[in-house]
């Protein structure tokens, strides 16, 4: 086995009408992580690479809201996503 780490990915979604906080909707390593990233690209979902955050989010069960300790960092990522969406809307 090589010293190379397997790529990991976690997808989160936020629907304030259903949940108080973002939820973990998909997670995986290796081929599953690649598929999550591929689906994100197909649907125009921005990807944020932060290995330490992925490690923390990967420990959360699927369809579970993120804990309050992660609200700040996830809020920053969601703000970045919204900014990117606004920019792309303005460029069309």
Automatic annotation (TrEMBL):
PANTHER family: FLAGELLAR BIOSYNTHETIC PROTEIN FLHB. This is Flagellar biosynthesis protein. InterPro entries: T3SS_substrate_exporter (IPR006135), T3SS_substrate_exporter_C (IPR029025). It comes from the Bacteria. Keywords: Cell projection, Cilium, Flagellum.
């Amino acid at each position: 086995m090589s010293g190379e780490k397997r790529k990991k990915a976690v997808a989160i979604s936020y629907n304030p009408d259903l949940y108080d906080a973002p939820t973990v909707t998909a997670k995986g390593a290796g081929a599953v992580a690649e598929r999550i990233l591929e689906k994100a690209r197909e649907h125009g979902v921005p990807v944020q690479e932060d290995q330490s955050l992925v490690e923390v989010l990967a420990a959360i069960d699927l369809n579970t809201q993120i804990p309050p300790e992660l609200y700040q960092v996830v809020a920053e990522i969601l703000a970045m996503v919204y900014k990117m969406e606004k920019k792309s809307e303005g460029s069309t």
